[in-house]
Automatic annotation (TrEMBL), chain A:
<dbReference type="Pfam" id="PF04066">
    <property type="entry name" value="MrpF_PhaF"/>
</dbReference>
<keyword id="KW-0050">Antiport</keyword>
<keyword id="KW-0813">Transport</keyword>
<keyword id="KW-1003">Cell membrane</keyword>
<dbReference type="GO" id="GO:0005886">
    <property type="term" value="C:plasma membrane"/>
</dbReference>
<comment type="similarity">
    <text>Belongs to the CPA3 antiporters (TC 2.A.63) subunit F family.</text>
</comment>
<protein>
    <submittedName>
        <fullName>Multicomponent K+:H+ antiporter subunit F</fullName>
    </submittedName>
</protein>
<keyword id="KW-0472">Membrane</keyword>
<dbReference type="GO" id="GO:0015385">
    <property type="term" value="F:sodium:proton antiporter activity"/>
</dbReference>
From TrEMBL, chain B:
<keyword id="KW-0472">Membrane</keyword>
<keyword id="KW-1133">Transmembrane helix</keyword>
<feature type="transmembrane region" description="Helical">
    <location>
        <begin position="40"/>
        <end position="56"/>
    </location>
</feature>
<dbReference type="GO" id="GO:0015385">
    <property type="term" value="F:sodium:proton antiporter activity"/>
</dbReference>
<feature type="transmembrane region" description="Helical">
    <location>
        <begin position="6"/>
        <end position="28"/>
    </location>
</feature>
<keyword id="KW-0812">Transmembrane</keyword>
<dbReference type="Pfam" id="PF03334">
    <property type="entry name" value="PhaG_MnhG_YufB"/>
</dbReference>
<protein>
    <submittedName>
        <fullName>Multicomponent K+:H+ antiporter subunit G</fullName>
    </submittedName>
</protein>
<dbReference type="InterPro" id="IPR005133">
    <property type="entry name" value="PhaG_MnhG_YufB"/>
</dbReference>
Length: 89, 115
């Protein structure tokens, strides 16, 4: 039961990542691509947590936390670069 | 019983994440596209984290609260990044486009995002 639910969630997240990647390639403007990258790291956090449930290990939460932190910082850095032409003034 | 609840949260979280990404891929405008990831995908990841919390709390003897940290961080940072992306888009296309009087009045064009 739980195994089937984990596999269904895996398939959903994988399709979601493919759709995000399509938007990342296709996206007409630069903020579209930043938004696609933002959604990709959120989906990657979900994928890591799912993999932790699947394996029964708790090691993956730290990796998920680090990916969440770095993804937010990279989104802010890309947006600041587009807004001001510089990241740290 | 707890297994059933965990499976429910897993499936609902996965479906919400998928719905958010479909919204990102299919909606026509960037300002519409912002709604999918910032709301639906965050809710989906929150559902998966709740499922993980239930699962590991039932496996080990102790309560497992690592996931709460990730969920809290994502819930705090999703609106901030969406706001920044929207501001970047407004800046790149040169102002909000709805205020006409400001452009005719003075030299500061498209004034909201020039701090």
């Amino acid at each position: 039961m739980l195994n089937l639910a984990v596999i269904i969630a895996f398939v959903c997240i994988a399709v979601a990542l493919l759709l995000n990647f399509w938007r990342l390639i296709r996206g007409p403007s630069l903020p579209d691509r930043i938004l696609a990258l933002d959604t990709m790291y959120i989906n990657t956090v979900a994928l890591l947590v799912l993999f932790g449930i699947y394996q029964g290990l708790t090691v993956f939460f730290e990796a998920a936390l680090i990916i969440a932190l770095m993804g937010f910082v990279s989104t802010v850095a890309l947006c600041k670069y587009l807004l001001r032409g510089d990241i740290i003034e | 019983m707890l297994d059933l609840l965990t499976s429910f949260f897993l499936v609902v979280g996965g479906l919400f994440a998928l719905i958010g990404s479909i919204g990102l891929a299919r909606l026509p405008d960037l300002f519409m596209r912002l709604h999918g990831p910032t709301k639906a995908t965050t809710l989906g990841v929150g559902g998966i984290l709740i499922a993980s919390m239930l699962h590991f709390s039932s496996l080990d003897s102790g309560l497992s609260l690592h996931e709460l940290l990730v969920a809290l961080f994502l819930l705090i940072t999703a609106p901030v990044s969406a706001h920044l992306i929207a501001r970047t888009m407004i800046h790149l296309r040169g102002g909000t486009g709805t205020v006409v009087d400001e452009r005719e009045a003075g030299p500061q064009q498209g004034g909201t995002d020039q701090r």
